[in-house]
Please model this.
Amino acid sequence: MEQKDYLLREIEKVGAIIRAIRQKLFGGTDELAISVNNQAEALTEMMLSEALIDLDEILTMDVAETDEYLAGQKGFNVENIELLARTLADIGMTSGPAASSALLEKALQLYEICNLRDRTYSFEREAAISQLREALQR
Model:
């Protein structure tokens, strides 16, 4: 019972960290958003310092390697992976062409991981996947 409570706290902690990072990147009620040019760098730094995830390393991995890497990290359930994918997609949609493609590809891979892990169909997730595929074809 204590182990389950610990895991739930870790999952909630990672979700809170990613939501806080999103708020810092895209602005909140009491903060100004980080400029579009610096969002990818800021995300990389914050993920490494706050969630202990090396985003530069993840960007070079394929789907299977990324899934294995995230499975080894405490607190990365489907919801948190989807939140990370949404964050990468949001930054990729607004950044320059060089960084954009890599971020959008990784976001698409993360959504695919969510589909593999989650047994329920998500209309929102499928809409995001379609939007990413369209953006990558341009």
Summary: Residues 25 and 42 are 7 Å apart (CA to CA).
